[in-house]
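Thread: "does anyone have the structure for this chain?"

Original post by V.I.:
We have the sequence but no experimental structure in hand. Need at least a predicted one for the grant figures.
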Amino acid sequence: MARIWRWVGLAVLTLGISGCVSQEKYNALKLDRDQLAERLASSDAESQAAKAQAELLRKQLEAIQAAGGTSSGLMSTLTAQNADLQRQLEDLNRKYMEALNRAGQGNPLPPETTQALQVLADKYPDLMEFDAKTGMVKFKGDVTFASGDATLTPRAREVIEKFSSILNSAAIANYDLLVAGHTDNVRVSNPATIARGHKDNWYLSAHRAISVGETLMNDGVSASRIGVTGYADEHPVASNDTASGRAQNRRVEVLIMPKPTAGGEAAAGESGGAAQTESTGGANGATPNKP
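Reply from O.Q.:
Generated one for you, tokens below.
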């Protein structure tokens, strides 16, 4: 490449000392110089791409060597990672079902938190609901997101910011949060929706849950408290045979859960069961919870 630049420079120098030349010869030399410059830029881009590819291959080889020097070693590593992710998803499923089954067993949240969440839900009834029996906040999909999208609307961001302030209050600062996305049973077919990465209802439900989870974290809620999963249309709360029923099924739930103790029971604190222990597990996953 350096030789190419020197050749271009020599051509220009020769032009300068040779006296008067025709405009045609000058234009021809200038065109040659420009073409060589383009070739040089192209060669540099190709070189950078080759370097990036070589670096990727190097890292893959290092991964294989670290796993035992064989492709079977790498496969074993990936299998172990997949098993760990599966355990995390199973833990999320367990927590979700336990939270749903808390209905009728008493308020799982401190009184001041229950009151604050109810006030917020009453202020924005078109966007969110609060169930004090389960400690669940529900964001209605058709208001929280545009159709076929996982980007929060400005108004939803405003409400979730207020919700985050409640979650960061001292009363429940140690509670775990499970963010679960749900859809209706209408198959994803819009090319624009698929192009955004929402290939089916599993992806769409998970991506919407991720958006809510990320917004909570951006508002200061600790990532260590948050688990994220997507259930597609597997947990409807209404019939998918009607438009109103499908609208109810399009939602993102945030379950506020006391942290379990080492024995598996919810930790009881001084204020309405507020947890005082560290979490024994849980996943901060963002993978569609597809069986």
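V.I.: this helps a lot. The first helix runs from residue 2 to 17.
O.Q.: and DSSP finds nine helices and five strands in the chain.
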